[in-house]
Design a protein that fits this description.
By secondary structure, the chain is an alpha/beta fold. 30% of the residues lie in helices and 25% in strands. The protein is elongated and about 75 Å long.
Length: 402
């Protein structure tokens, strides 16, 4: 919420409009320019491959970003749980793809309410028991539920393990008047091994082949059945498998990356490098848009800085990376060096940084921008993030709904 040039921080305190002066830190920050780049880049990629984009909303659970993704051309938003779907729908998302099983009557009741209110909703199934439970519940509510059969892999997460299980489950779904078989769903991130790319290409082909077989057998009730997969690491491989094979039928191919919207400085930066090596025709690639700004809290001994930043503020799948440093009340143009800075340890509210021998200019209160790996685990620590421009002026506060 905004009051002219003033924004409200996550504790409800009025803050000034520049990160370097008056903003209570630490603060999670989304940079406006790379965000805009990423939104346009991924939508253009999906369009070029004849696919729809249903970004995984669990990454950010930020309604303002959902709206940005939809305005850029996204087909819908993917979610992981019934409460996440409820939160997205309450914030204007009407087409919801829950890439998970809908289990438990309380969760079914949430989704039934959304369908009654006009939501277009899909979830996945992989067992006869879940199909029977869903069929009975939604029949009693006088509703129909669109489901996708999840295609799994041995040793992976959920999903049918064999083609025969998939075909049998399709027959069982056909016996449930309240259920509509709308397509197939998969997730390639559960495919591992010595040669993951070959395994993922084989999995994607299998997903497509089974979809084509089911369509030929007339098993789908959706006019243009959905075939969907893709996390944030292998979307190019999935898109290539969908592009061509699915264009021959009446399918709706859907890609579901989520982390692309803000990218990162770790896991997905590495994955993006692999994408660009496989696809040198792609221009620029994604740009990291998410950072956490924090201040030097203590210089207790030579070569050590303690930052007012911890596990409660930033994801720590990998240790955060110091990116830039500023003086408090300085200007963005007056950057100070963080060369040789090494984060060695992170606690609940403190981060330990080993300083280089020449790091004598560090002062208490210096402001440091940190990058992290896996943006999901930074977003879920905040009730709001700050959208900033290149001058670090706060443009908007982005509320989350975890």
């Amino acid at each position: 919420m905004r009051k002219g040039a003033v924004t409200i921080d996550k504790g409800g305190v009025e803050i000034s409009s520049n990160l370097l002066s008056g903003v209570s830190l630490p603060a999670a920050v989304v940079h406006e320019a790379p965000l805009a780049h990423n939104l346009e880049w991924m939508q253009r990629f999906a369009d070029a491959h004849g696919a729809q984009l249903a970004p995984h909303g669990k990454t950010t659970m930020t309604p303002a970003l959902f709206q940005c993704q939809l305005q850029a051309g996204a087909w819908g938003i993917t979610l992981a749980t019934a409460p996440q779907c409820r939160a997205a729908f309450a914030n204007g998302v009407t087409r919801l793809l829950m890439a998970n099983q809908l289990v438990g009557q309380a969760n079914m009741a949430i989704i039934a309410s959304l369908v009654e209110q006009g939501a277009t909703f899909y979830c996945v199934v992989d067992s006869q028991e879940n199909v029977r439970q869903l069929g009975r519940f939604f029949a009693e509510r006088g509703l129909t539920l669109s489901v996708l059969i999840e295609v799994g892999v041995t040793g992976g997460r959920c999903g049918c393990r064999t083609q025969q299980q998939i075909l049998s489950l399709a027959e069982i779904i056909a016996d449930e008047p309240a259920l509509l078989l709308a397509g197939l769903e998969g997730y390639e991130g559960v495919v591992h091994g010595d040669n993951p790319e070959a395994g993922i290409r084989a999995y994607a082909k299998y997903l497509v082949d089974v979809a084509v077989e089911l369509e030929a057998a007339g098993r789908f009730t959706e006019k243009n059945p959905l075939v969907t997969a893709s996390g944030s690491a292998w979307y190019d491989v999935i898109a290539e498998a969908f592009d061509g094979a699915l264009q021959q039928g009446s399918f709706t191919p859907i890609l579901r990356p989520g982390c692309y919207v803000v990218h990162d400085h770790g896991l997905y930066r590495e994955a993006q490098s692999a994408v660009l090596s496989r696809r040198p025709d792609l221009q620029q690639g994604l740009k990291p848009a998410l950072e956490v700004f924090a201040q030097v809290q203590s210089l207790p001994e030579p070569g050590l800085a303690i930052m007012a930043l911890g596990k409660r503020d930033i994801g720590h799948d990998q240790l955060p990376i110091a990116l830039r440093r500023y003086r408090e009340a300085g200007t963005p143009a007056q950057r100070l060096s963080v060369a040789g800075w090494e984060v060695t340890h992170i606690m609940d509210q403190h981060t330990f940084v080993r300083l280089p021998d020449d790091g004598q200019d560090v002062k208490i209160g210096d402001i440091v921008a940190f990058g992290a790996s896996h943006p999901c685990l930074t977003f879920d620590k905040w009730r709001q993030l700050l959208l900033v421009d290149d001058a670090l002026n706060v443009k908007e506060h982005l509320a989350t709904c975890f």
